[in-house]
Amino acid sequence: MNPPHDDVLIIGGGAIGLATALALLDAGRGVRILEAGAVGGGASHGNCGTITPSHAPPLAAPGVVAQALRWMFTPDAPLYLKPRIDPALWHWLLRFAARCNPRDWRQSTQARAALLNDARARLADWVGRYGLQCEFEEEGLDYVFRDPRRFQQYMDESVVLKTFGIATQVFGGTDYEREEPAMLPGVAGAIRFPGDARLRPDRYVAELARVVRERGGVIEEQCRVDRLEPTPDGVRLATSQGERKGGDAVIALGAWTPAFARRLGIRAPIQPGKGYSITYSRPARVPRHPMVLKDRSVCVTVWGSGFRLGSTMEFSGHDDTLNATRLAALERGAREFLREPVGAEVHERWCGWRPMTWDDLPLLGRAPGQRKVWIAAGHGMLGISMSTATGQLMADLMTGRPPAFDPSPYRPERFA
Ligand SMILES: Cc1cc2nc3c(=O)[nH]c(=O)nc-3n(C[C@H](O)[C@H](O)[C@H](O)COP(=O)(O)OP(=O)(O)OC[C@H]3O[C@@H](n4cnc5c(N)ncnc54)[C@H](O)[C@@H]3O)c2cc1C
């Protein structure tokens, strides 16, 4: 039997592969997604589900290197680097460190804001248009501080954010405690980002998959792609379920991208930035808005169906063990801020790999040196927030339509 021949083969069924598939279907293209595990089972599963134009500033900021070095030997710090010999990691870190200056910070912030702002508006549209049942609420997000110095530092940053179209509202500590009865006393202040939103990410990816299938897209689960070969009229893939052929291929493999791309001679310097979450039944007294407990970098998201504490950033390679110390740090952080920091029942303890590039921008576009191979990967801490804009941008680039914003900052060639 001949292998199926599809229009576009999408390799990887996370939020990015799914959103790209949906936008391509809408543009009249045919798609087949090939996913090694269960659809949405990678980083897109247990993340915090916040939709955050507020997070436009990149991780590489002035002062971060000194902070990271201080944290390096603190196993429960929000940012942790497991000391080890790994040339790709050290090269990545050096490039990351070189970007911790005001000029590069501004350049990444601007490019991230363009993608995030487009994605935020487009998400509301998709939720309505496709009827995505994913507990999406446009309720903003709060940064909460107990440390007055840190609060002041972020107030200064929020002034800069306004120039990128990101609105903020500032609260003094007592005002915020009155506003949010879920907090323990001792809040120094809070910054609200009214333009942010939240959703339940496992529901979001399941709903994207539903709509992709309803519109004629094919999703093959438990189908690992081992090799990609360009052919005169497209691409051929060797998969764990046999050969697949297509006109174009999109590599949407998140943190798994570098090894796969390397076999094609494509450089995609993405490090897995491991993060954790714990999902509980919903406590009686929960915050009214999703929030980041900034002094401890713990994100709190509340849905009708549950309550999640998440975050921490660990550079420890492709290690998928659940580290009890780092999980405990999430609960410890929450206990400092919240009257009811955990729910009665634990539903899931989870970790996932954020696909981190050193400039904190994804790779979006045609793969260098390839005619029919495209990349959509490297969304770091913001792949859910950026998913709709990424899907639309990929579909526009692949169908030759003018994109909604300048795609040049995300060109994969910048790493070639
Ligand atoms: C703790 C934590 C909290 C986060 N919170 C947020 C948040 O609040 N908001 C936000 O916007 N982002 C958040 N993120 C980041 C977000 O989760 C990621 O950026 C996003 O999920 C990346 O999506 P993706 O589709 O690129 O990758 P993934 O979802 O990882 O998808 C890649 C897929 O490729 C598959 N795959 C791998 N190898 C192969 C192969 N050879 N063949 C076929 N398939 C393969 C994998 O099984 C996987 O399903 C968070 C991440 C973490 C870890």
Structure description:
The chain is α/β, with parallel strands linked by helices and 416 residues long. It has 2 domains: 5-44 and 203-269 and 360-415, FAD/NAD(P)-binding domain (3-Layer(bba) Sandwich), CATH 3.50.50; 56-101 and 129-196 and 270-356, 2-Layer Sandwich (D-Amino Acid Oxidase, Chain A, domain 2). It is 31% helix and 26% strand. It has helices spanning 15-26, 64-71, 87-98, 102-130, 148-162, 173-179, 201-214, 257-262, 324-337, 387-399, and strands at residues 5-11, 31-34, 50-51, 79-81, 141-145, 169-172, 189-193, 197-198, 218-220, 225-231, 234-239, 242-251, 271-280, 291-293, 298-303, 306-315, 346-356, 363-366, 373-377. Strands 4, 5, 6, 7, 13, 14, 15, 16 and 17 form a 9-stranded mixed beta sheet that branches. Strands 1, 2, 9, 10, 11, 12, 18 and 19 form an 8-stranded mixed beta sheet that branches. Strands 3-8 form a two-stranded antiparallel sheet. α1 packs parallel to α7 (201-214), α1 crosses α10 and α4 (102-130) packs across α10 (387-399). Flavin-adenine dinucleotide binds next to α1, β13, β16 and β17.
Quickly count the domains: 2
Distance between the termini: 39 Å
Low-pLDDT stretches are none
In the CATH hierarchy, the architecture of the largest domain is 2-Layer Sandwich
DSSP helical segment count: 10
Strand-and-helix sequence, N→C?
Answer: EHEEHEHHEHEHEEHEEEEHEEEEHEEEH
Q: By CATH's scheme, which homologous superfamily of the largest domain applies?
A: D-Amino Acid Oxidase, subunit A, domain 2
**What's the main sheet like?**
9 strands, mixed
